[in-house]
Structures are given as C-alpha cells and as structure tokens.
C-alpha cells in the first residue's frame, strides 16, 4: 500500500475543487490513497470506481465519497448496461499500478493540462467534479469533525454501499450547487472564499449523514464514541487555530495532552503526516496569505498578527513553503 500513497499538500492546498475531464494522459485514475477526504460527482459518462475491496458503478448525477486512507481508483465503465451503485457487491480485482493519480496544478486549480504533443484522437467523454479537503481545516467545531469521522467509520463498516449516492437521493437538496460554488470560489479566491467553501463542505457532509440515517444507519453509537473519547490531537489543533498569533511551545502542547515531548511529536506526525511545528506554520502562513491577498498592510504588521517573531521570520518561513517571498506572492496573486 505504501507505493500507492498520493502526497496531499495540506499547507498549500487544504481545500481543492475542480472539474476533471478525462483524457488518454490523465485517465484512468489508478489505485492510490491519501489523507484527504475526496468526493466526486459525475457530470458526463459512466465510470467504474473501486474503493477498498468493492466496485461501484456511477452514472451522471451520482456521487461517491472516498475517506482518508482508503485505496480507490476510477475507470471507464466498459459495460454501460451495469446498474449504478453497489447492487451486486463484489471484491475489487483491478490490477495494481505503480503510476499514481495525475498531479494537481495549484496555479490553475485543476489537473495539470495535457501536453499537446501527447494528445490522441481517443475520447472518453467522461467529466466529473472533485472536492478534496483536509477535514481538520474546516472552520467548524472539533466535536463536529470527530462526530462525522465516527459516523463515517460506522457507515462504511456496516455497509460499504453507503459510500455511493444516486442522483435521486439529493433531488430536493442543493448538493450539486455546492460543487459549483466551491469550484468557483477556489478559482476566484475573493475575500472569505475559504470560509464559504468550508461552510458548504460542512453542509454537504451533513446531507450525507442525514442520508445514511434515512437509509437505516443508527448513529447513536458513533455519537457516544465521539463524546466519550475526544480526539486529543483535534483539541490541540483547535487550540493552535485559536492561538496561532501567540507564542506556542510544543512542549506546552505535549503537557496539555499528558505526554512526553518525544511521544507527542511522534504521535502527532503519525496522525497528521506532518510535524506539530509544520502544522503551526501551516496555520500561520494560511492566515498570512489571507492578509496578503485581501489587504495592503505591510509585512511587519502581518508578521505580528500571525504569530511570527518578526518580519524576517515570516519571509524565511513563507519562502521555505511557497518558494517565493510574501511580497513576490502578493504581486503574483493581485487581482
């Protein structure tokens, strides 16, 4: 499974939304996994997706959700007479590939365009929308994030068919508008775009949970687990998000959890695939990005507002992660 890991850039792209058009270069989407939640909505064509040990057939209007660390893939449906969903549950038997999912282009908020010299006359006529996001980045309570995680784990354990949603299931809900809005907001990145996208994703996850309840899922067990066993690190990340503009010592965070420094650091990295120091920088640089993008205030003020020791510290850290200085980034992203 290790060679199927797709790197998820939580710092530069904790929220991703785009329209995907299949071509001979970027399709099929071969088996891979990541730490993001991924949701796809089929616009045109029919596809056969694999997730874990199961195969799902999707037609236009259908939706499927891939949770973190589940190996999944997307192929063209060879027999379009197959019924949608998971009506005939069967083990996935697709051959494993070494090539992973096509790369995401941050500049264009889309899959990297196919080079002209590699295009062919073959057409798949497959188009779908993609939402990918770090659940911990959502601007919502820790309890909500933990509860949804437990509800999903329960749903998938009880019935893998819960991953699939037909277009009839959401006919009276603004689910498809959520995809359109998220894609547009992430393309334009106007003031407050991240708050709007996070609120729409939270609504979408709530619609999923309601759907599962309507299909017979008893969520009492998941709620009890989320309330009785709080996620220690989720509480820590919430603390960081509230106090990012203050000095934060990792040793103090470890003491808050009742752990030694080394044990805290090791478990945090196992949980989030990055160190606690990197996560703090992730939060601070995202806040700095907002100020760079939405205001004309100087770097000294921004460094003070986002928890950096001084302007030089902000510039060094920003360039380490972004490859450019804050001033250069502001110039490139001015609307």
Characterization of this structure:
This protein has 335 residues and is an alpha+beta fold. Helices cover 41% and strands 15% of the residues. The chain is built from eleven helices and eleven strands. It has helices spanning 142-158, 175-188, 193-214, 220-228, 232-243, 250-256, 261-272, 276-294, 299-305, 311-322, 326-333, and strands at residues 15-21, 29-32, 37-44, 47-51, 54-58, 63-66, 72-76, 104-105, 110-111, 127-133, 164-165. Helix 1 packs across helix 4, helix 6 crosses helix 7 (261-272) and helix 9 packs across helix 10 (311-322). It is globular, with a radius of gyration of 21 Å. It starts with 14 loop residues before the first strand and ends with a helix.
- Report the principal-axis shape: globular
Strand proportion, as a percent range, falls in: 15-25%
Characterize the largest beta sheet: strand count, sense, and whether it forms a barrel: 5 strands, antiparallel
Oligomer: single chain
Going across the major beta sheet, what is the strand order?
1-10-3-6-11
Helicity level: 40-55%
Instruction: Output the number of helix runs.
Output: 11
User: Would you identify the regions where 5 or more consecutive residues have pLDDT less than 50?
Assistant: 94-121
Number of strands: 11
Structural class: alpha+beta
User: Roughly how many Å apart are the termini?
Assistant: 42 Å
Mean pLDDT: 81
Question: What is the radius of gyration computed over CA atoms, rounded to a whole number of angstroms?
Answer: 21 Å
* String of helices and strands: EEEEEEEEEEHEHHHHHHHHHH
């Amino acid at each position: 499974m290790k060679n199927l890991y797709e790197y998820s850039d939580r710092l530069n792209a904790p929220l991703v939304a785009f329209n995907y058009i299949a071509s001979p270069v970027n399709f099929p989407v071969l088996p891979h996994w990541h730490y993001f939640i991924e949701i796809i909505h089929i616009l045109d064509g029919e596809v056969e997706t694999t997730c874990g040990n199961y195969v799902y057939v999707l037609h236009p209007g259908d939706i499927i959700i891939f949770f973190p660390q589940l190996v999944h893939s997307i192929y063209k449906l060879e027999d379009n007479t197959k019924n949608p969903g998971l009506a005939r549950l069967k083990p996935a038997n697709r051959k494993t590939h070494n090539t992973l999912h096509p790369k995401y282009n941050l500049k264009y908020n889309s899959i990297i365009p196919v080079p002209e010299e590699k295009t062919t006359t073959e057409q798949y006529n497959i188009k779908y929308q993609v939402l990918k996001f770090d659940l911990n980045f959502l601007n919502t309570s820790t309890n909500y994030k933990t509860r949804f995680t437990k509800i999903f784990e329960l749903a998938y354990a009880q019935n893998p068919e819960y991953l699939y949603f037909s277009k009839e299931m959401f006919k009276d809900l603004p689910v498809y508008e959520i995809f359109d809005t998220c894609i547009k907001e992430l393309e334009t990145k106007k003031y407050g775009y991240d708050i709007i996208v996070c609120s729409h994703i939270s609504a979408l996850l709530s619609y999923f949970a309601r759907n599962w309840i309507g299909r017979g899922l008893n969520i009492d067990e998941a709620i009890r687990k989320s309330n009785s066993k709080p996620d220690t690190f989720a509480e820590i990340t919430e603390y960081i998000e509230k106090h990012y503009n203050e000095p934060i010592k990792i040793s103090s965070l470890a003491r808050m959890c009742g752990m030694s420094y080394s044990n805290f650091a090791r478990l945090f990295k196992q949980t989030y695939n990055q160190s606690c120091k990197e996560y703090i920088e992730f939060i601070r640089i995202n806040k700095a990005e907002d100020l760079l993008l939405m205001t004309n205030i100087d770097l000294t003020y921004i460094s003070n507002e986002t928890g950096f020791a001084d302007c030089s510290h902000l510039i060094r850290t920003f360039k380490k992660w972004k490859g450019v200085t804050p001033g250069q980034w502001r110039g490139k992203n001015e609307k």
